[in-house]
Amino acid sequence: MKKPNINVEVHHVTRVEGHGNIYVNVKDGIIEKCEWNISEAPRFFEAMVAGRNWNELHHITSRICGICSIGHTLASLRATEAAMGIKISDQDLKLRKIALHAENLQSHILHLGFLVLPDLMGVGSVIPLASSNPEEVKTVLQLHRLANEMSNLLCGRTTHPQRLIPGGFSKIPSLKELKELKKKLQDSVPKLQAVAELFKSVAPKLPDFQRETEFIALTKPDEYALYDGDIASSDTGKAPASEYLAFTNEYIVPISTAKRAKHARESYMVGALARLNINFDRLSPLAKKTAGMFGL
Amino acid sequence: MKPKVAFFDFAGCEGDQLQVANLEEELLTLLGQVKVVSFREVMKEHSDNYDIAFIEGSCTRLQDEDRLKQIRKNAKIVVAIGSCATIGGINCIRNYKDLDEVRKTVYGENAKLFDTYAARPIDAVIPVDAYVHGCPIDKDEFLQVVKSLLLGKKPDIPTYPVCVECKKNENVCAFERGQFCVGPVTRAGCNSCCVNEGTVCWGCRGLVDNPNENAQKEVLIKNGLTVDDAIGKFRLYFGWQERKR
Fold it and tell me: At the top level of CATH, which class does the domain B4-150 belong to?
């Protein structure tokens, strides 16, 4: 068999948040270079927050990422509250969890509909899909709008939330507003199912890729953890969140302005897939059924 | 022929480009009026042939200036979107610190591998024709600015402070709630969105053209606040503008 020569140079991966480049060189079947290079300018958040007031930190760290600003705000608030021994009410805890779900829905719909779907449909962006598949794009836009309405209702804004403050909320939605939201979410299930069907029809186009991976996610015995819980690793088991430094282990490589992290192996995976692998049995019945459609 | 537009980002969170995606159905209407030729966050294709360039983020490295100058050369109209691009935004917080220390805080002994200089808005490097202020930008204001540009008009940006809108909205003054607000000197146009939600104006739209410093001082004295409080709040978003003044 002829040994392959491969030369891949992707300068700016597109349809992702942030600037990254991929370089792969294979000569006569031997990998000479395989780099994931993060070239975007460093922001220096660790230095920005030093010396600032405790009630500004979440406002600053929210700006780490506009797409997941609710997550960054809540992480900062939890750190501030843990440091100062502030307890939030059960009601505020529930509202924060709903706010985080709102962002997850927004970011996952954006990811699936705007960022992934064009590849599976063989086009460069969602723009041509608007004329070739108008119904599907409309469904994605409606769900994205609903997720944004949900963020807006909980956080007072869709990006860089305002109502989330140390100790709880600066303003909360009315019961009537929450009930209306609940109805809209229940009514959106057929649309979500339509998106699942659409992805099922194009899923065979995804490359069949598997590798041994360490997954790390939050975990709780009685819910599908997103906001709080213990840290769980698929390799080493559970530990309290206060021991997070034992899991992050940040280190620096010259080709990346973003730091890297490792735990039991050279790298690990966090996020949706890690949560699914670690907490699968705690998914809701509908989510489990949908996962079943994809053989998960 | 439809005008060709492109989106670019420098040091920032990409939250302003997200507001463009958040236009939802109106985005489709907008796409009927313009042709997007480059938008890394949502499309694979790229072309250097464009009429309007929207730039998000601050310039924080000497090496990024060439890219900005090339964009200026290619575009007829350059629009800065979001606080990082219009006024430097929170990136400028670190300008008040020793930048070598700043680099060491994050990268330790590897600090020298990662270049940086004082964070600055886009118009500190290249001329900018229009601004969409805010952190993040307001998607309706973005549409208004785009409409104005397509009609060949100068976008109408308020030259009065946030307090004007806040009073109209009948909010209880943040100072009366015991908080510190920079609404008296911040450019309006946000409809006092943060104070409406029970927090304060943080200053993300930048200093208004002729800030009434005496009025702000009076408010500070009346509420028993100190110069240190004021400096801290002003340096959250006004860092570049304050240093220039």
Answer: alpha beta
